[in-house]
Amino acid sequence: MSSEIVLTLPDGSERSVPAGTTPLEVARAIGPRLAADAVGAALDGAPVDLRTPLGRSGAFRLYTAKSPEAGDFIRHSAEHVLADAVTRLWPEALYDAGRKDHSEKFQYDFRFARAFTPEDLAAIEAKMREILAEDSTFERLEVTRDEAERIFRELGNDLKLERLKDIPAGETITLYRHGRFLDLCRGPHAQRVSQIGAIRLLEASGVYFKGDERNERLQRIYGTAFGSARELEAYDRALEEARARDHRRLGPELDLWSFSPLAPASPFFHPKGAAVYNGLIGYVRELNARHGYGEVVTPQILDVELWHTSGHWANYRENMFFTELDERQYAVKPMNCPTHCLIYQTGKRSYRDLPIRYADFGRLHRYERSGVTSGLTRVRSFAQDDAHVFCTDDQVEAEVMRAVGIILDIYRTFEFRDVAIGVGTRPDKRVGSDEQWEVAEAGLCRALDTNGLAYTVNAGDGAFYGPKIDFRVSDAIGRQWQLGTVQLDYQLPQRFELEYVAADGSFRRPVMIHRAMLGSVERFLGILIEHTAGALPFWLAPVQAKVLPLSERFLAYGGEVAARLGEAGLRVEVDVSNEKLGYKIRQAQLAKIPYMLVVGEKELQAGAAAVRTRGGEDLGPIPLAELTRRLVDQAARRAAALPAAGEVG
Questions:
Q1: Domains of the chain
Q2: Which residues of the chain have pLDDT under 70?
Q3: Residues 110, 221: contact at Cβ < 8 Å?
Q4: Rg of the Cα trace of the chain?
Q5: Are 399 and 333 in contact (CB under 8 A)?
Q6: 468 a catalytic residue
Q7: Residue 158 contacts by C-beta under 8 Å, 6 or more apart in sequence?
Q8: Disulfide-capable partner of 416 in 40, 272, 473, 564 (CB 3.0 to 4.6 Å)?
Q9: Catalytic residue from among 388, 426, 523, 571
Q10: Which one of the listed residues 80, 109, 337, 515 is annotated catalytic?
Q11: What values do phi and psi take at 116, rounded to 5?
């Protein structure tokens, strides 16, 4: 370690400080006000605790409670205050661990004799506020493994002794103390507990120690915290909006899907849900056909020998389902890629045949632990809009950009306007040589650079067989979701010994590109429901229009209207209830139906329907033939609004 390091500040100025200087010491050198207000720091974008000695040069930033990045430090600190409060109220409770991601919440797991009640949470929150008022300072302590074991043995906390075993030999072991509370933790934390301006406990649930069902059951408490009450109020408003859009509530309410304990974390799609599901797949099928992808159908259960060859057995088997037949072991496929390699192997391939593009909507099954499954966004049974391209090295950039272009078009169709692109590089657990990874990573970055697309590099976030481009979209209320992916793979063609005959007559390996645009169809549908608050675009809505007869006398004409539109390929229902029109309109709006077609005497005589939108707009009477043409045109163009009469081609 050099004796001096150079820290580059946000304004571009540089400060030379002795190696081992802490961020808090840097803050004091800049000014006493900054030192008092500092919550945390970052070196080259990575969060750093204020008390951690700095060992290298880099871009350096200090955060105060007003900084957007301060939330992670504040919530991590509130996590410790939570554990402190619980053990003050119930000294017999043993605290286990918090969470890694503090971007929105904090949590702690406890060995506790019963489930925490709402009354318990209120008492804990009150005790937390008392602790905040004490204004104790967070201390960072480096200890040896023996010292840590002695401390937690004296505290009688065997959960922490188990956690100590997970820390690799030679890694620095740190404890954090505030007031009387001490815990094993890497940090980072705020300077003082009083920098936590507002707290809220959210809920409690049962979990398993280390997330393993074979271990004992613990009790978890979730909460959130901010630097100010104003930020907490904004969070509450966003949370209320998110609840209103929650697909786990809207899906069953709209009769789209359900779940059964007889098939855990595996959705059952009802007719309306299946209409939407098939609409998504049909849209992707059109794109696949337009861009030269041939659809294939592959088995769901395959001999484990295949998964040994592909590398999934060594790198992914804890996420797979297995079965046995005729004394042979089989696996239910979690991915389509190995089966596409088998199809490629069935014929002799020439460079003239490449690129070969296979698309597959086959069902996939992955073992997701019960603690992480959630609605449609994390399920065990699903389909992807999956595809794999086999191509030459010279074709990689064009094929990557073909996939990227389709993905961006899809997101525009669904009005995801804010799209962030990231490149995931080699993870610790991977197959293939560093040289192969370097070629693959450079290939993805070059394709994006050449086409002027901005991206960030997410170190270590690649798949075990290759680097990837991921797409994160922001929904209507600003939440980010990871959706599509394009992955470059030099490993599977080698493991399956795939070849093609090059122009010079030599045998060469193809490059394999993995591509999913929606990603999991189930997950995309859940996200789309939340993005639209259930008001799906007209072309995808399970019921596109509902005919509302003014009275029983107009039921027959209402049936004729529905039949005429149905013959044109539209999904239409008739409200046959004996309710008043206002009630019928309200029910159709609650069902998120795009159009309500009111029919009475005037409409019967004119051969028309009075059209209302779910947003409350009254479009007036439209002749049935014209309405049919306009609705069909809107669906075909996937347009956001009903085209005017003159716009229909």
A1: 4-64 (3.10.20.30), 70-244 (3.30.980.10), 257-529 (3.30.930.10), 545-647 (3.40.50.800)
A2: 1-2, 646-649
A3: yes
A4: 29
A5: no
A6: yes
A7: 94, 152
A8: 473
A9: 388
A10: 337
A11: -75, 135
